[in-house]
Design brief:
It contains six helices and six strands. It has 163 residues and is an alpha+beta fold. Strands 1-2-3-4-6-5 form a six-stranded mixed β-sheet, with helices on both faces. It is globular.
């Protein structure tokens, strides 16, 4: 789980232009707003805020937001933008495994802006199914963008990676 001591690092990643240009909220986040977000969400039983480590070194952040059904969650994530290529796939496998095996999730969904091609491809590589595109659905600094919806069921994850 993400701890208070991780705030500065996660805030730095989140505000990096290479990360925030793909977020639904693209403006830089002031540190006091980031701290307030953490204080509220770290206490919310429907949210899991996760710092992702490889060999003991933090390299990414992920979160699950549980829906009204406790076994269905939306996920979001980003990696250290200065880190090596391929981190997203490693993060995806680790976090999805945590979601299905530790949290007992049945379904995980993701939403991706159309211009975030690497995230769209990553969802596909991880086995997510495209469940639709909402056309011109979200206004960003680049204009209106389509939003891609993805879903992955635990049974499909287990069949793919746990054989």
């Amino acid at each position: 789980s993400m701890e208070h001591r991780d705030l500065k690092l996660v805030h730095k990643w989140r505000n990096d232009p290479r990360v925030r240009r793909h977020m639904f909220s693209q403006k830089p986040i002031p540190s006091n707003d980031h701290a307030a977000w953490f204080e509220t969400n770290s206490k919310d039983s429907k949210r899991h805020l996760l710092l992702v480590l490889k060999d003991g070194v933090p390299f990414g952040f992920a979160q699950f937001n549980l829906s009204n059904c406790a076994t269905v969650a939306d996920w979001g994530f980003y990696v250290d933008p200065s880190g090596p290529k391929g981190q997203g796939y490693y993060l995806g496998q680790a976090i999805l495994s945590f979601g299905y095996e530790t949290l007992g999730l049945h379904r995980i969904t993701g939403q991706v802006l159309n211009d975030n091609r690497s995230s769209i491809e990553l969802h596909e590589r991880l086995g997510f199914i495209s469940e639709g595109i909402l056309r011109s659905h979200h206004l960003t600094e680049q204009g209106y963008q389509d939003v891609h919806f993805f879903g992955l069921l635990s049974v499909d994850w287990k069949n793919r990676f746990q054989e």
